[in-house]
Amino acid sequence: MIRRFLRPPHGPGEWLADGVRLIGVLSVIAAFVWWRPTDAGIVALSLLALVVPRFVGVRPSFDILFCVTVLVAAWSNVLHLYETLVGWDLVVHFVCTGVLAAMTYVILARLQIVPAPLGDETRRATPVVLVTALGLALSALWEMLEWVGRTFIAPEIFVTYQDTIGDMAAGGLGGLLAGLAVSWVRLTDDPSRGR
Length: 195
Known about the structure:
By secondary structure, this protein is mainly α. It has helices spanning 2-6, 11-34, 37-50, 52-56, 60-78, 81-84, 88-110, 125-153, 161-184. Helices cover 75% and strands 0% of the residues.
């Protein structure tokens, strides 16, 4: 994994993905300068996620989708889009949870904990079931973090029972769609092994 991370980019897709990561770094600086330090902290947390595709070794298209989605989720918080755009919260939960669940499955496959997607011995239903379950688990974790944030850090974070259930349902559906994608589309950069 370290070797994958340190490898220089090859081709326009990998350069573009690294460009999105650079935008993530610049976003932290922008949030710190023009918004509050807590906003910069929210965007800074996204940097941890932005390096994951480099370590895992995914195709540039999935790398770009993953990084853009994470940045959109972070900036949606900073710009208060979750409160001002009706339904935006559900859209982000659907898309972000889906890509996070797919990436989690790829990580687990790289660690040989779950079967490789598109592997010779892997049934098509396996990634669908497991990525959906990962999406639901990530949705629950996300909602717990929102609750912790509201309870201990910022009481203005919007958390209600209905919002929590809706967000988890959207995340679960995103996980289901991502599971279907993982079972049919190669997400990794290693076509010879189907991983």
